[in-house]
Amino acid sequence: MKSLFQTLKTPLLVALLVITPALAVRAQDSRIQMSSLDHLATKAKQTVAVTLDERLMRMAAKLFPDHGDEKEVKDLLNGIKGIYVKSFEFEADGQYSPADIEGIRSQLRGPGWSQVMSFNSKTEGNVEVYLLFNADKVGGIAVLSADDRELTVVNIVGPVDVEKLSKLEGQFGVPDLGIESKKEKEKKNDK
Protein backbone atom coordinates (compact mmCIF):
# COMPACT_ATOMS: atom_id res chain seq x y z
CA MET A 1 0.00 0.00 0.00
CA LYS A 2 1.33 3.44 -1.00
CA SER A 3 1.78 6.11 1.58
CA LEU A 4 -0.02 9.41 1.20
CA PHE A 5 3.28 11.12 0.31
CA GLN A 6 4.01 8.65 -2.51
CA THR A 7 0.48 9.07 -3.86
CA LEU A 8 0.73 12.87 -3.89
CA LYS A 9 4.42 13.11 -4.85
CA THR A 10 3.93 13.17 -8.65
CA PRO A 11 1.01 15.65 -8.69
CA LEU A 12 2.90 17.91 -6.26
CA LEU A 13 6.04 17.86 -8.42
CA VAL A 14 4.03 18.64 -11.55
CA ALA A 15 2.26 21.52 -9.81
CA LEU A 16 5.58 22.87 -8.54
CA LEU A 17 7.10 22.70 -12.02
CA VAL A 18 4.14 24.60 -13.47
CA ILE A 19 3.87 27.26 -10.76
CA THR A 20 7.57 28.05 -10.18
CA PRO A 21 8.36 29.48 -13.65
CA ALA A 22 5.18 31.58 -13.56
CA LEU A 23 6.16 33.03 -10.18
CA ALA A 24 9.72 33.67 -11.37
CA VAL A 25 8.47 35.54 -14.43
CA ARG A 26 6.11 37.64 -12.29
CA ALA A 27 8.87 38.34 -9.78
CA GLN A 28 11.08 39.76 -12.53
CA ASP A 29 8.32 41.76 -14.22
CA SER A 30 9.59 45.28 -14.71
CA ARG A 31 6.17 46.79 -15.52
CA ILE A 32 4.90 48.85 -12.62
CA GLN A 33 1.13 48.90 -12.20
CA MET A 34 0.12 52.57 -12.02
CA SER A 35 -3.68 52.27 -12.24
CA SER A 36 -3.91 52.96 -8.49
CA LEU A 37 -3.01 56.57 -9.35
CA ASP A 38 -5.85 57.06 -11.86
CA HIS A 39 -8.15 58.65 -9.26
CA LEU A 40 -5.72 61.59 -9.00
CA ALA A 41 -6.67 62.78 -12.50
CA THR A 42 -9.88 64.32 -11.16
CA LYS A 43 -7.88 66.45 -8.69
CA ALA A 44 -5.08 67.44 -11.08
CA LYS A 45 -4.98 70.59 -13.18
CA GLN A 46 -2.80 68.71 -15.67
CA THR A 47 -2.37 65.00 -16.28
CA VAL A 48 0.08 63.25 -18.59
CA ALA A 49 -0.22 59.55 -19.37
CA VAL A 50 2.17 57.85 -21.78
CA THR A 51 1.69 54.22 -22.77
CA LEU A 52 4.17 52.97 -25.36
CA ASP A 53 4.10 49.19 -25.57
CA GLU A 54 6.60 47.00 -27.47
CA ARG A 55 4.76 47.38 -30.78
CA LEU A 56 4.78 51.16 -30.54
CA MET A 57 8.43 51.12 -29.45
CA ARG A 58 9.37 49.23 -32.63
CA MET A 59 7.41 51.75 -34.72
CA ALA A 60 9.12 54.67 -32.94
CA ALA A 61 12.56 53.12 -33.49
CA LYS A 62 11.91 53.11 -37.24
CA LEU A 63 11.58 56.90 -37.20
CA PHE A 64 15.22 57.39 -36.21
CA PRO A 65 17.99 57.32 -38.84
CA ASP A 66 20.84 54.79 -38.76
CA HIS A 67 23.60 57.32 -38.05
CA GLY A 68 24.85 59.68 -35.35
CA ASP A 69 23.16 60.20 -32.00
CA GLU A 70 19.85 59.14 -33.51
CA LYS A 71 21.26 55.65 -34.15
CA GLU A 72 22.03 55.32 -30.44
CA VAL A 73 18.43 56.22 -29.61
CA LYS A 74 17.19 53.76 -32.22
CA ASP A 75 19.38 50.98 -30.80
CA LEU A 76 18.13 51.72 -27.29
CA LEU A 77 14.49 51.71 -28.41
CA ASN A 78 14.88 48.38 -30.18
CA GLY A 79 15.55 46.64 -26.86
CA ILE A 80 12.91 48.39 -24.77
CA LYS A 81 9.58 46.65 -24.27
CA GLY A 82 7.70 49.75 -23.15
CA ILE A 83 7.70 53.22 -21.64
CA TYR A 84 4.94 54.13 -19.22
CA VAL A 85 4.51 57.53 -17.58
CA LYS A 86 1.87 58.98 -15.25
CA SER A 87 2.29 62.57 -14.19
CA PHE A 88 -0.08 64.79 -12.24
CA GLU A 89 0.27 68.51 -11.59
CA PHE A 90 -1.97 70.03 -8.92
CA GLU A 91 -3.04 73.60 -8.13
CA ALA A 92 -2.78 73.08 -4.36
CA ASP A 93 -0.67 71.06 -1.93
CA GLY A 94 -1.92 67.81 -0.43
CA GLN A 95 -3.89 66.50 -3.40
CA TYR A 96 -2.30 63.05 -3.20
CA SER A 97 -1.57 60.98 -0.13
CA PRO A 98 1.48 59.06 1.07
CA ALA A 99 -0.61 55.91 0.46
CA ASP A 100 -0.69 56.73 -3.28
CA ILE A 101 3.11 56.77 -3.38
CA GLU A 102 3.38 53.73 -1.11
CA GLY A 103 1.39 51.66 -3.63
CA ILE A 104 4.14 52.28 -6.17
CA ARG A 105 7.02 51.85 -3.70
CA SER A 106 5.66 48.52 -2.51
CA GLN A 107 6.00 47.16 -6.05
CA LEU A 108 9.56 48.45 -6.19
CA ARG A 109 10.47 46.46 -3.08
CA GLY A 110 9.79 43.28 -5.07
CA PRO A 111 12.44 40.77 -6.09
CA GLY A 112 15.17 42.13 -8.35
CA TRP A 113 14.40 45.82 -7.77
CA SER A 114 17.07 47.99 -6.12
CA GLN A 115 16.89 51.65 -5.24
CA VAL A 116 20.00 53.24 -6.73
CA MET A 117 19.33 56.89 -5.99
CA SER A 118 17.26 59.00 -3.66
CA PHE A 119 17.13 62.79 -3.62
CA ASN A 120 15.12 64.50 -0.89
CA SER A 121 14.61 68.25 -0.59
CA LYS A 122 12.02 70.21 1.37
CA THR A 123 11.91 72.83 -1.39
CA GLU A 124 12.42 70.74 -4.54
CA GLY A 125 10.66 67.49 -3.68
CA ASN A 126 11.85 63.89 -3.76
CA VAL A 127 13.19 61.73 -6.57
CA GLU A 128 13.83 58.00 -6.31
CA VAL A 129 15.40 55.84 -9.02
CA TYR A 130 15.09 52.05 -9.02
CA LEU A 131 16.67 49.45 -11.30
CA LEU A 132 15.47 45.91 -11.88
CA PHE A 133 18.43 43.59 -12.23
CA ASN A 134 18.27 40.33 -14.17
CA ALA A 135 21.61 38.79 -13.19
CA ASP A 136 24.06 41.63 -13.96
CA LYS A 137 21.91 43.34 -16.61
CA VAL A 138 19.37 46.11 -16.09
CA GLY A 139 15.94 44.76 -17.00
CA GLY A 140 13.88 47.81 -16.12
CA ILE A 141 13.91 51.26 -14.57
CA ALA A 142 11.43 53.13 -12.42
CA VAL A 143 11.58 56.77 -11.38
CA LEU A 144 9.31 58.24 -8.73
CA SER A 145 9.29 62.03 -8.45
CA ALA A 146 7.09 63.76 -5.90
CA ASP A 147 6.77 67.28 -4.60
CA ASP A 148 3.96 69.26 -3.01
CA ARG A 149 2.12 69.89 -6.28
CA GLU A 150 3.40 67.25 -8.68
CA LEU A 151 3.65 63.47 -8.80
CA THR A 152 5.36 61.61 -11.65
CA VAL A 153 6.10 57.92 -12.15
CA VAL A 154 8.22 56.78 -15.10
CA ASN A 155 8.66 53.09 -15.91
CA ILE A 156 10.94 51.81 -18.66
CA VAL A 157 10.41 48.11 -19.28
CA GLY A 158 13.01 45.82 -20.79
CA PRO A 159 16.78 45.66 -21.03
CA VAL A 160 18.26 49.13 -20.76
CA ASP A 161 21.79 50.32 -21.42
CA VAL A 162 22.11 52.91 -18.65
CA GLU A 163 24.94 54.62 -20.58
CA LYS A 164 22.55 55.33 -23.46
CA LEU A 165 19.54 56.18 -21.29
CA SER A 166 20.33 59.90 -21.29
CA LYS A 167 19.37 59.95 -24.99
CA LEU A 168 15.72 59.31 -24.01
CA GLU A 169 15.49 62.29 -21.67
CA GLY A 170 12.92 64.76 -22.93
CA GLN A 171 11.46 62.23 -25.39
CA PHE A 172 8.45 59.88 -25.18
CA GLY A 173 7.31 61.52 -21.94
CA VAL A 174 10.58 60.73 -20.14
CA PRO A 175 11.52 63.82 -18.09
CA ASP A 176 15.04 65.22 -17.84
CA LEU A 177 16.54 62.98 -15.16
CA GLY A 178 19.99 64.59 -15.10
CA ILE A 179 21.68 61.47 -16.46
CA GLU A 180 24.93 62.06 -18.27
CA SER A 181 26.83 59.41 -20.16
CA LYS A 182 30.58 58.94 -19.59
CA LYS A 183 31.27 60.53 -22.97
CA GLU A 184 29.25 63.64 -22.09
CA LYS A 185 31.05 63.94 -18.72
CA GLU A 186 34.43 63.57 -20.45
CA LYS A 187 33.51 66.29 -22.96
CA LYS A 188 32.60 68.66 -20.11
CA ASN A 189 35.82 67.86 -18.25
CA ASP A 190 37.94 68.45 -21.36
CA LYS A 191 36.57 71.99 -21.78
Kindly describe this structure.
With 191 residues, the chain is of the alpha+beta class. It is built from five helices and six strands. It has helices at 4-27, 54-62, 68-79, 98-108, 182-190; strands spanning 46-52, 82-89, 113-121, 125-134, 137-147, 150-157. The chain has a six-stranded antiparallel sheet with strand order 1-2-6-5-4-3. Strand 5 and strand 6 form a beta hairpin. Helix 2 (54-62) packs antiparallel against helix 3. The protein is globular, with a radius of gyration of 21 Å. The N and C termini lie far apart (84 Å).
Distance between the termini: 84 Å
Strands in their spatial order, largest beta sheet: 1-2-6-5-4-3
- Helical content band: 25-40%
Question: Could you state the order of secondary-structure elements as H and E?
Answer: HEHHEHEEEEH
Q: In percent, how much strand structure appears in the residues?
A: 25-35%
Which stretches are poorly predicted, pLDDT < 50 over at least 5 residues? 1-28, 181-185
Overall average residue pLDDT: 75
Count helical runs: 5
User: Radius of gyration over alpha carbons?
Assistant: 21 Å
Structural class given helices, strands, pairing? alpha+beta
Shape: globular
In this structure, how is the largest beta sheet organized?
A: 6 strands, antiparallel
Question: What is the tally of beta strands?
Answer: 6
How do the strands and helices of this protein lay out in sequence?
Elements: H1 4-27, E1 46-52, H2 54-62, H3 68-79, E2 82-89, H4 98-108, E3 113-121, E4 125-134, E5 137-147, E6 150-157, H5 182-190
Antiparallel strand pairs: 1-2, 2-6, 3-4, 4-5, 5-6
Helix pairs in contact: 2-3
